Sequence to fold (100 residues):
Amino acid sequence: MAKSEKNSTKEEKVLTKQELKEQKKQEKLKAKKAKEKKEKKGGLFRKLKEAWSELKKVTWPTFATVVKKTGVVILVVLIFTVVIFGIDYLLGLLYNLFLS
Fold:
C-alpha cells in the first residue's frame, strides 16, 4: 500500500502543477483583458488629447520660410511645364514631318 500512496501523491503533485499552470494562464488572460479595457476607455477624447500633445512638439516653420519654399516649388513646376510642353511641341513637329 505504500507504493500506491506514493503514486497517488505523485499524481496529486502533477495535478497541482497542471492546476498552477492553468491558474497562471487565467491570471494572464484576466490581466490582458483588464489592460485592453483600460486602453479602450476614453476613446475619441484620448486620441484627440494625444494628437494635441504631438502637435505641441512640432517645430513650425516661419512665414518667410514657407513663402520661400512655396516660391521654389512654383518655380520648379513652371520650369518642368515649359520643358514638357517644349518636348511635346517638338514631337508634334516630328510627327507632322512623318505624315507629310
In short: DSSP finds three helices and no strands in the chain. The first helix runs from residue 2 to 40.
